[in-house]
Amino acid sequence: MSSTALKPAVFHILLALADGDSHGYAIMQTVRQQSGGRVPLQTGSFYRHLTTLIDQGLVAEAPAPRDVDDPRRGTHYRLTPHGRRALELERRHLAALVSSMRALGKGAR
Q: Where are the domains of the chain?
């Protein structure tokens, strides 16, 4: 994982998986909800991002929960340890940005 900031869609996909495994549709809904609709994810772009995240080892396929008997709830996904590290790096990056912005505000007074 590089030290560059994550794209908003990638960040929100990883964040959506931080609390546990989920299927694609639920991840997309969580991204819409947590971003307040500011991160538009269409099905095609979502699965392109997801494929890249899987190829990078940040996300992996996960077995569906046994209590899910809905064929519309296809493959489930989970955050890998590498994905958790990437999310933590992004958290630190964003915290540093917020700190810098606060420092600017204090100097402008």
A: 8-107
User: What type of residue sits at position 9?
Assistant: A
Specify the residue for token string 């969580």. 30
Q: Helix 8-17 crosses helix 24-34 at what angle (to 10 degrees)?
A: 110
CATH architecture of the domain formed by 8-107:
Orthogonal Bundle (1.10)
Q: pTM here?
A: 0.84
pLDDT (tens digit per residue) in 42-98? 999 999 999 999 999 999 999 877 665 555 567 899 999 999 999 999 999 999 999
* DSSP per-residue codes, 21-75: -EEHHHHHHHHHHHTTT-S---HHHHHHHHHHHHHTTSEEEEPPPTT---TTS--
